[in-house]
Amino acid sequence: MNKPAPSRPPLPDAEHLLAKLLDQMHAVVGPDTGLVGIHTGGVWLAQRLHAGLGIKTPLGTLDVSFYRDDFDQKGLHRNVKTSDLPFDVEGRQLILVDDVLYTGRTIRAAMNVLFDYGRPAGIKLAALVDRGGRELPVAPDFLGGNITLAVSQSIELTRDDAGKLSFKLHEN
Amino acid sequence: MWLDPRNPQLNKNGELHHLLSIDGLPADVLRQILDAAESFAGVTQREVKKVPLLRGKSVFNIFFENSTRTRTTFEIAAKRLSADVINLAIAQSSTSKGESMLDTVANLAAMQADMFVVRHAASGAPYLIAKHVGPDIHVINAGDGRHQHPTQGLLDMFTIRHYKKDFTQLRVAIIGDILHSRVARSQIHALTTLGCPEIRVISPRTLIPADIKSLGVHVYHDLREGLKDVDVVSTLRLQNERMQGALLASGQEFYKYYGITPDKLALAKPDAIVLHPGPMNRGVEIDSSVADGGQSVILPQVNFGIAIRMAVMSIVAGSWRG
To answer: Which of A16, A42, A87, B191 has its CA 20 to 30 A from that of B3?
Structure first.
């Protein structure tokens, strides 16, 4: 017998959550703050935050494929991007930016990458949406909003040609 | 059987399980390796040049034939992936006591090896080893006889892509001892798969295999003619130690007709790059002023070689083995 399909939750408006994130972050970031987006959705989000917050330090991007804890099960990610931190990590306040916060494992991997570039003064976490289900002690410092999803569902951030961000639901 | 019987380096999902030859690797696997290497090249520029991907894995460099440079780059690559590396120069050890290659390998497998990097003077030796190891062991060919040297071919592709971006517009010349060169074969297969429209091989008649045209290349015996308007000049090492019989009068004579000198390089495109797999014979296949000149990318090749080997090792180690 087939299980009934999980209900489709209403998807939040990504642009609206982005505005809320900008409001929270304005007071905290300085001109030297290093903003670091995690590929791929986190980079899109970080680009918008970087412009919106007027940060002078160039934007950093991270691919965490080399630090993932599921390498033994899944192998190397098919589409590895290049990490680029165009500033000195040593002693700097950093903000990690990701689109969807879930188990916390990506954030753990991202922090390990950062420490291989140097010892930052501190790291904060900004996420557009939190879907719960944490498996590690990770919590966002800046958050656009929450969503409840079934385990079989996932959401992905997408970007259209005009640069507008929106969410897409996947049934796995 | 978890491997594709027609192409035993790929598993049934088309993923790379062993790297034995560039021949037979589809374009998407080649691009996957080049893309991953791009990312690993960034790692080698960092403060900490290591990533934890192969932590707890054991990589055995088993060299039945000496090659300090190739062994060293594989060793650096494995260490930068956090693997444990064991180097074995078999040429000086067990086989001299009479043990067969497969017995040697079976013994090493019993020591919980995860990966074998194999260099052997006999063509096909890595295939034989790959056929006899268990499903959890990966084999990488680090050069077998006259047959293939796939990571060298891959790092050459990486170098060409780095400087020239697009293979589909390129004219590439491969110059020198094609007959004894496993590098030339690997390059020709990779360039063809990646869509390079014109590959030229330039060599004296005695150093060119009779069947080379079946690979789809253009053959030149005159260096000046062959270098005209090429984008990439790939020089090969004159393999003194592999030469048997009088195929050449002398190194000096080779230099006179086939050595890359500044005036001959001037016939190629002004922005042409010059590659050499090393070790170089200066004044034989390449003039010092070219080797050290502005168009030479020979030293960047060495650095890219580490990134390519990191990419290959991490891709095979992560392939599905179910």
So the answer is: B191
ipTM surpassing 0.90, yes or no?
Answer: no
Residue for token pair 């007071």: A27
CATH T-level fold of B27-149+303-317 = Rossmann fold (3.40.50)
CB pair distance less than 8 Å for A76 and B53? yes
Angle of the B125-132 helix axis to the B101-110 helix axis, nearest 10: 40
Give pLDDT < 50 ranges for chain A. Answer: 1
**pLDDT score of A1:** 47
What CATH number corresponds to the domain at position A19?
Answer: 3.40.50.2020
Distance from CA of B54 to the nearest CA of A (A): 9
How many domains is chain A built from?
1
Q: What are phi and psi of B116, to 5 degrees?
A: -115, 125
Decide if A75 and B15 are in contact by the 8 Å CB cutoff. Answer: yes
Fold category of B150-301 in CATH: Rossmann fold (3.40.50)
A82: nearest CB among B42, B52, B317: B42
Question: In chain B, what percentage of residues exceed pLDDT 70?
Answer: 93
Q: How far, in Å, CA of A39 to CA of B139, rounded?
A: 31
Would the pLDDT of B244 be above 60? Answer: no
| Boundaries of domain holding A145 | 14-69+86-171
Q: What is the DSSP string of A41-61?
A: HHHHHHHHHHHHHT--SPPEE
